[in-house]
Write a structure and sequence with these properties.
Length: 166
Amino acid sequence: MKIFDRVFVVAVIIHSSAAISQCAPGIPSAGNPGCIPPNQPNSPYYQDNAASIHLPPTAIWADQWGAIAVDASSGRAGTVSSSSSRTKAESEAMDRCSENGGIQCKLLISYHNQCVAATQNFNGGVIFAVSAPTTNTAESAALSDCGGRDSCRVIYARCSNAKRIQ
């Protein structure tokens, strides 16, 4: 029986060392003494998949500005809807107002990356202008400020949306 005991002990020792070096299912054990899962950065099997993912480039947008200038005494106006800066849009609107016969032109509104609507009551009084994300929203707000559809009308509506440059 002594030989059987010795063989048994040797078999247990050999088998137990193999059991100690085995990792859980799905985790490779060869060259991975700590049984580190392959999706962990410190695993010898880790592969950084982020470098292999090709994402589209981030879009680059340019602001677009608009402006409305009005000469209230003559009813003349100047508008611009796609300028690259606020200063340029306001200056162009004032110039156009003057070119259209306005003498006392004043800036009514400037806006960027949005829409604008201008309303005036039916008897030609004050002009109201509102900017908003959409033309419909701007028109509704401008009509509300003016007194509603029964007493006012939309005289100008335009959008100055940002322009994708890359």
